[in-house]
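Service request form, structural biology core

Requester: graduate student, group of Dr. S.
Request type: structure prediction, single chain
Budget code: on file
Notes: please return the result as structure tokens.

Sequence provided:
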Amino acid sequence: MSTSPTFSDEHLEARARELLLDGTEELAEVGGAVFDVATRRSYWSRKTRELHEVPDDFQPATQRVLDMVAPEARPMVESALLDCVST
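Core staff response, request fulfilled:
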């Protein structure tokens, strides 16, 4: 009798997307981030944390994230963030 866990097609598809994204980030040396408007929290991919040389459990405050943005891009990022939060 097998005790191997079974996974849904959705779980397998999500895992495949995660592996593809991890591989792409590694190859391109870029990371990804998501800002949850409801909780006002950021999620950084493993590669993003690696590129910023922060620990795996790092949870950036919004201002800290903005401080890390290149100065020439900061107005655009701040504007986009304000648009997200106000709508």
